[in-house]
Amino acid sequence: MKKSILETDRLLLTPTSIEDAPLFLALLNTPKWIEFIGDRNVKTLEAAQKYISDRVLPQYERLGYGNYTVSLRTDGTKIGCCGLYDREGLQGVDIGFSYLPNFERKGYGYEAARCLRDAAFNDFGLQTIGAITIEKNEASRGLLEKLGLVFKKKIKLENDAEELLYYEMTKVISS
User: Structure pTM?
Assistant: First the structure.
């Protein structure tokens, strides 16, 4: 069964929509996004809406999951995103996340990613999830390892000069 909204004790994860463009405009222009993910040249609200329309919504429509906007349950403040991505150049689905600077190092990243990891296996029927990051992104690497993903190999995606670390986790079947 596929869920539209995922919940944790402190967070709501809702499928990203065009209305999340202000959050995306802020996220895609944070220093860490630009350093660790790359400049997507999204500098206006209209460009953020187009980014969501062209790059986020099609996967959700195709697979029933994708990028989720992460909000605080207490007041609805949008703090970042976490998603399962069917990324070109990678086999399988990978998990990724990004948060506004004021909401980093508060456990939200782990809480949202753990929720999405569990949904990937229990609700979306995935048997394996991967993840990619660059070597110098120690916070991302730490979160991936805390989630249970294990480093497998170094890879390069097409049209990307930077070498990436590829992590993976397979669903544990309890007896």
Answer: 0.92
